[in-house]
Amino acid sequence: MTTKHTPGPWVYDGSEAGYIIFNPNIGTIAHTSVDMANQNANALLITATPELLHDLKIVTAQLRQIGAVIDEENPELSQDMLDALDDIEVNILEAEQTIAKAEGKVTP
After folding, report:
1. Domain assignment present for 3
2. What span, in angstroms and rounded, lies between the C-alpha atoms of 92 and 63?
3. Mean per-residue pLDDT, 2-29
4. HSE (CB half, 13 Å, CA atoms) of 97?
5. Is the CB of residue 100 less than 8 Å from the CB of residue 93?
6. Domain count, the chain
7. Residues 89, 67: contact at Cβ < 8 Å?
8. Residue 15 domain-assigned?
9. What is the pTM of this model?
10. Of 8, 57, 72, 108, which sits most exposed with the smallest number of CB within 10 A?
11. Contact, 48 vs 67, CB < 8 A?
C-alpha cells in the first residue's frame, strides 16, 4: 500500500493559539496546538515535509548511482574508501526506510 500525501507546497499561518498547515490550492492539512513554545518550529518542519521527502529520494538515488559506478570502475579501492562506501550504504538503506515509512509502504 502506498500512501499519497497532499502535494506541496505546504504553508502555515497562525499565532500563539495555533498554526494551520495548508496547501493554498487544496486546503487545510493539519493544526498545531501541542506546546506553544514549539508551535512555530513544528509548523516550519511540517511545511518542509514534501520538499524533504522529494530531496531525500533524489539524494538516495544519486548515491546509489555513485556507488555502482565506483564498484564497477575501481575494483581495487583502499580500505578507507571501502569503509566509507559501507557507511554510505547503511545511510542509504536508512533513508530508503524513512521514505517507505513516509509513503506508507511499511508500518512505523
Report:
1. no
2. 7
3. 83
4. 8
5. no
6. 1
7. yes
8. yes
9. 0.65
10. 108
11. no
What confidence tens digit (pLDDT) does each residue in 31-74 have? Answer: 877 666 677 777 888 888 888 888 998 988 888 887 777 766 67
What type of residue sits at position 27? G
Sheet holding 11-15, edge to edge: 11-15, 18-23, 27-32
85 inside domain: yes
Domain of 32 in residue numbering reads as 11-102
Contact 43, 14 (CB under 8 A): yes
Is 84 among the domain residues?
yes
For residue 13, give the nearest of 34, 31, 38, 25 by alpha carbon. 31
Question: Please, are residues 47 and 30 in contact by the beta-carbon 8 Å criterion?
Answer: no
Q: Which residue has the higher pLDDT, 32 or 23?
A: 23
Instruction: Please report the beta strands in 1-108, taking only residues with DSSP state E, as ranges in sequence order.
Output: 11-15, 18-23, 27-32
pLDDT at residue 63, rounded to an integer:
83
Cα separation, 84 vs 66, in Å, equals: 13
| Residue 9, all three cell numbers | 507546497
**SS3 of 105, please?**
coil
CA atoms within 13 A on the CB side of 58: 6
